[in-house]
Amino acid sequence: MANFSGADIFLFIVGFFLPPLAVGLKRGCTADFLISIGLTLLGHVPGIGYAWYIVYKYRDEPSEYNRYHGRTYVAVPQQHNYQATAQTAPAHPPVV
Q1: Residue 75 falls inside a structural domain
Q2: Is residue 38 in some structural domain?
Q3: Structural domain containing residue 14
Q4: Does residue 47 lie in a domain region?
Q5: Based on the structure, what is the number of domains in the chain?
């Protein structure tokens, strides 16, 4: 059994009522969105089936999404031996 994130479950519900909206939220304005509009115009049931297929095919991993609450973290390299390299200016300019 596949695990689904909360966002995917929401998209399944939206896909039942407005299939092109669910596909648009999941994939953006791509060919999938246009196919969904066409199938929904041909009949509501084919539109629902296609929307659910897209949400299932491109589902989010719930463990990764919930672990970081949707945020992506990247490791930052550490600099251990750094020294200040700024030159200090003389207090008074030299007299010419």
Answers
A1: no
A2: yes
A3: 6-68
A4: yes
A5: 1
Separation CA 15–CA 18 (nearest Å): 5
pTM, 2 dp = 0.62
| d(C-alpha 11, C-alpha 7), whole Å | 6
Asked if residues 73 and 12 have their Cβ atoms less than 8 Å apart, the reply is no
DSSP per-residue string spanning 5-71? -HHHHHHHHHHHH-HHHHHHHHH-SSHHHHHHHHHHHH-HHHHHHHHHHHHHHTPPPHHHHHHHTT-
Amino acid type, 38: G
Is residue 86 one of the residues assigned to a domain?
A: no
Which among 10, 5, 11 has a CA at the least distance from the CA of 54?
11
Do the beta carbons of residue 8 and residue 22 sit within 8 Å? no
Mind listing the pLDDT tens digit for each residue in 4-20? 888 888 999 999 999 99
Q: How far apart are the first and last CA of the chain?
A: 84
- Give 38-54 pLDDT, tens digit per residue: 999 999 999 999 999 99
